[in-house]
Amino acid sequence: MIALSVDVVTKTIAGAWAWLFRGRRTRGEVVKQLYQIGNRSLLFVCVTLGFLGMVLVFQTCLQVNRITGDLSQVGAEFIKILVHEFGPSLTAMMLATRVGAGIAAEIGSMVVTEQIDALRMNGVDPVDYLIVPRFLASLVMTGVLTTIGVGAAVIMGALTAYYSFHLNPVVFLDPSHVRVGDLLTGIMKCAAYGAAVPIVAGICGLNARGGSEGVGTATTRAVISASFVVILLDFFLSGLALFTFQRGGL
Amino acid sequence: MKALQLAFEGLGSAALALFDEAGGMALLAWRVLVGLLTLKLDWRELVRSLYKMGVQSLPIVALTAFFTGGIMVIQSGIFIRRFGAYGLLGFGAGYATLREVGPILIGLMFSGRVGANNAAELGTMTVTEQLDGLRALAIEPIGFLIVPRVVAMMIALFCLVVLGNVVAIAGGALFGKLLLNVELSSFFHSFADNLKPWDLMIGLVKAAVFGLAISITSCHFGTSVKGGAVGVGRAVNNAVVAAAVAIMISDNLITMVLR
């Protein structure tokens, strides 16, 4: 398991490097994965992040009403925390369930139907052929989906603030609290999650054993491992950002 | 003209599929309710499921909760450092964890571990025609398999969120001391003085409802699998996606109704 994991990680990074800079590309595969990972998760991410925006604004306004009653800063702070924390992390949690499960189910069923062995027999490396395109696509699409998801959350949050707490959207939609450090933190998190999810899911998929039961187990393991890796990365990157990017006036 | 027709066709079939699944879930929920009220459930399966879903999920839930507490302290820390209000750390981190982030993150992890596993298990039983085998032996799969799992998931997630809250608060206090140098006593005072039992209750109501949502989605997608190993994988995927959407929507409804 550990040997396979190390193998997959190194081969994926090497493969991605070769794809980017040495033009070793399977035609159309990355575009297909961009569609699979990005477009087909779009609705899911928008719905979940939209509801998340609603509930976060609702809770924050309740809390602020209890203490000060001045709701004018809620929007600005909401957008800030969405950019550096909840946007990337919750989008990645959603992608860990949707994309992670999808990758593990697909690769897992290829393993149990011996298609991976067939690939090897034809001299094609399964990591190069299957995981590298998903890795590259996920890296791009996590950022894109996070951006769109943050947009959905902000819009739904503004509507909630207006209808439940009569807060003017002009006051709410105030991005002035977002500093460069917040943006950097968000981008760093997106990149880390986007890289981690397909690799973790791919490892779980390649580990599938036995018939349909094995595919189910592999998919389950992929979801749980990918989600946990996201939480773990979130913790460490947030801690890192607290003492670097978000320290002082940046 | 052709493109317009295709667009409408796509929209129509997507809507039909959505209502098909939603109706299937509602029907399953109704049958579970009937089975529960008439007490037609297999008690041994209930105990077995409680052990498998509850006890065996404890390590991953505890780890998740521990880091969740840490994340909430770091996020509250950004505000608190700016305003110098170190006395509010326990309140900020506790409020967010108990009411919102704790149940959601533990619920999502539970959905990944238990919901997905359940969908995979039921899916495998469906594609290998074991459910038909049960019916042939005059054993009703709903009471024998589904009702115990639904009950077990609700109880298990409820208990896991209770324990997870404790771990998350303890983790928060620890990381508050390590990262922001807030004394443990000041953390707990600000936690205990500012939060009401209602803040805990709202999170626990959410936990039970999330348990119901996860169990219904995973049982529905598990029992409606078609087509071999590929079908099982797809069913697991659909189950976790539907569970995540259900968690987010019910979270909103509960927050809006109970405040």
Output mean pLDDT of chain B.
87
**Ends apart, CA distance between termini of chain A:** 42 Å
| SS summary, helix count of chain A | 8
Q: Please give the most extensive interface between any two protein chains, plus how many residues each contributes.
A: A-B, 51 and 52 residues
Low-confidence stretches of chain A: none
What is the chains' assembly state?
heterodimer
> SSE order of chain B in H/E notation?
HHHHHHHHH
Number of helices of chain B: 9
Global shape of chain A: elongated
Major sheet size, sense and barrel closure of chain B? none
Q: What order do the SSEs of chain A take from the amino end to the carboxyl end, as H and E?
A: HHHHHHHH
Question: Helical percent range of chain B?
Answer: over 70%
Report the end-to-end length of chain B measured between terminal Cα atoms.
49 Å
Shape type of chain B: globular
The tally of strands of chain B reads 0
Helix share of residues of chain A?
over 70%
Describe the main β-sheet of chain A briefly: none
Number of domains of chain B: 1
Task: Assess the beta-strand content of chain A as a share of residues.
Answer: under 5%
Unreliable residue runs of chain B: none
Radius of gyration of chain A: 20 Å
